[in-house]
Specification:
302 residues; alpha+beta; Helix Hairpins; SH3 type barrels; Alpha-Beta Plaits; 5-stranded antiparallel β-sheet; 10 strands
Length: 302
């Protein structure tokens, strides 16, 4: 029984967190400083606190002013997009507030030297505890540097699709066409293939037209070309491609590939799908469907 109790005591002692000398000195100094503040007169303490708050107020105004100046400078640069500008402004804002907080505590009489010296050990511990957050932060830096997309671009990232509406140091926010908000961590976005549909100045629309066997190939091409000629959204250069693509089991499949601006892609796609059946019927062609021809052969009588 005694050995069991000793084992329990030793196990409990192992679970007690180890406090470093730096942390002990910091907390000891903090307790001493709190005792010193209690011994000060209310007037002296209020003067120190008021000057410290004024320092925070002035520092806040300086941070806001610096962010505005930086935002104007970044907006004039052609090499820095909106996404990179937002990311840099967030970093400057956070770093500014960290230095401002350290300065306030130093003004109040707390020596921040031991704290800054202990950041090495604390940084390792925090790095292990918040490795996912740090991974998202570093992935955000890689996204900003490589700029695979911008604010307002329509992208595919893994199994998600949507328009990029915002990005911070942790996540990317997408807006879907059916008005859904998708929040994806930067690590998942950077670790998945990113397809950007808005980055180029033109996009190709792939359209399939099926007609029955025996149809006039040139007539089908003329019908498709006539439909394209009425679309203002289709670009003249490069010219649309209209060719026989595949001989299926019950149809001859044509591929029609016009080029358009990214924002006009679905407008052309849906309009063509709604018009092609009627145009084919006007020239006597029908849209085929899967069918099976059954031939019955009479067996000779015995």
């Amino acid at each position: 029984m005694l050995l069991h109790m000793m084992a329990m005591v030793s196990e409990a002692a192992e679970t007690i967190p180890v406090v470093t000398e730096t942390e002990m000195s910091f907390f000891s100094e903090l307790m001493i400083k709190l005792h010193t503040w209690s011994q000060l007169g209310p007037v002296a303490f209020l003067i120190t606190l008021t000057t410290g708050l004024l320092m925070i107020l002035v520092g806040k105004l300086l941070i806001v002013w610096l962010c505005r100046i930086l935002k104007k400078g970044l907006s004039r640069s052609r090499k820095i997009n909106d996404l990179m500008a937002r990311f840099l402004l967030q970093v400057v804002n956070i770093v500014g507030w960290v230095f401002l907080l350290i300065g306030f505590l130093q003004h109040m009489g707390i020596d921040m030297g031991p704290v800054l010296a202990g950041l090495g050990i604390t940084g390792v511990i925090l790095g292990l505890a918040f490795q996912e957050t740090i991974g998202n932060l570093l992935s955000g830096v890689m996204i900003v540097i490589n700029a695979p997309f911008r604010i307002g671009d329509y992208i595919d990232s893994g199994s998600f699709s949507g328009t990029v509406t915002d990005m911070d140091m942790i996540c990317v926010i997408l807006s879907t066409p059916d008005n859904k908000r998708i929040t994806i961590s930067n690590k998942l976005v950077w670790g998945s293939p990113i397809v950007n549909y808005s980055n180029m100045d033109k996009r190709r629309v792939d359209l399939i037209v099926s007609v029955p066997y025996g149809s006039d190939v040139q007539l089908v091409k003329q019908v498709i070309s006539g439909i394209f000629s009425t679309y203002e959204e289709i670009l003249p250069d490069p010219a649309p491609t209209i060719e026989v693509n595949k001989l299926s089991a019950s149809s001859v499949d044509f591929i029609a590939r016009p080029w358009t601006k990214p924002q006009d892609y679905w407008k052309v796609f849906w309009r063509f799908q709604g018009e092609i059946c009627g145009k084919l019927e006007e020239v006597g062609l029908s849209v085929p469907f899967d069918q099976l021809d059954l031939h019955i052969i009479d067996a000779p009588k015995a």
